[in-house]
Write a structure and sequence with these properties.
Length: 214
C-alpha cells in the first residue's frame, strides 16, 4: 500500500481534508462542525484551513448490546436513526433496541452539556455547514448529524471525512439533506476507519474542549 493513502494521525487527516474543501475557504457563510470526539481534531484543522468558525455537533452511536462498537443506529437532538436491516438480522427485540436508544440519548445529552460548556449552539440558518468526522464506516452517526442539520434551515450541508466506505459515501450522497460528500480516500477495501491511520489514539473530552476553546 502506498504511504500517501494513509494518514499519520487526525491532524494530518484534517489538513488533507481541508485541501479537498479549499473551494469553501474564506466564505463568511461557512461553519465547520466536528462530531465528537474523534471528528473534532479533524474538524479543527479543516476550520483553520478554511478560515471559518469551528463548533461541535453532538450525536451518539447506538451500539448493539454486547458489541458496542457495532452501530445499529445513532441519536442526535430530536433525531433517532436506526439500521432496520441490521436489527432484523440480529433478531433484536423492541425492548432491547429501545433501551439502547435511551442510554445513547442520555449519553448524548450529557456530552452536549460537557462540550457546550455554557456556550449557545450556533445559528445555522442560511449557512453552509461542513460536518466532519474522522471516518465513515456504517455512516450511522453522520446520517444522524445530517438529519439534525436538516432541521436548522442550513443553505447546504456537506458531509466530510478523511476516509469513507464506498457504499456509505454513496448512501450519504443520495440523502436529500446532503449537498455533497467529500473524502480524501474512498477505498474498495475499507476494513475499518482505524486501518487508515498510523495513530488512531482515542480523543479525550479534554482535548475536544481545548480545541473548541481556541
Amino acid at each position: 500500500m502506498r504511504r500517501s493513502t494513509r494518514f499519520r494521525d487526525r491532524v494530518d487527516a484534517g489538513r488533507r481534508l481541508g485541501e479537498r474543501l479549499a473551494e469553501y475557504r474564506g466564505r463568511p457563510d461557512v461553519i465547520v462542525l466536528g462530531l465528537p470526539r474523534g471528528g473534532v481534531p479533524v474538524a479543527a484543522q479543516v476550520a483553520e484551513a478554511l478560515r471559518c468558525p469551528l463548533d461541535v455537533l453532538v450525536v451518539r452511536k447506538v451500539g448493539v448490546p454486547g458489541h458496542e462498537e457495532l452501530a445499529m443506529g445513532a441519536v442526535g437532538p430530536g433525531t433517532t436513526v436506526l439500521n432496520g436491516d441490521l436489527i432484523a438480522r440480529l433478531r433484536l427485540d423492541a425492548a432491547t433496541v429501545d433501551d439502547a436508544v435511551r442510554r445513547a440519548r442520555e449519553e448524548m445529552q450529557h456530552k452536549e452539556l460537557t462540550f457546550r460548556d455554557g456556550r449557545r449552539a450556533p445559528d445555522l440558518a442560511n449557512r453552509t455547514v461542513i460536518v466532519v468526522d474522522d471516518g465513515l464506516a456504517t455512516g450511522a452517526t453522520m446520517t444522524a448529524a445530517v438529519q439534525v442539520l436538516g432541521q436548522h434551515s442550513a443553505t447546504a450541508v456537506i458531509a466530510a471525512a478523511p476516509v469513507g466506505a464506498r457504499d456509505t459515501v454513496a448512501r450519504l450522497a443520495a440523502m436529500a439533506e446532503v449537498a455533497g460528500v467529500v473524502c480524501v480516500v474512498v477505498p474498495d477495501d475499507f476494513a475499518a476507519v482505524g486501518y487508515w491511520y498510523d495513530d488512531f489514539t482515542q480523543t479525550t473530552d479534554s482535548e475536544v474542549l481545548e480545541l473548541l476553546a481556541r
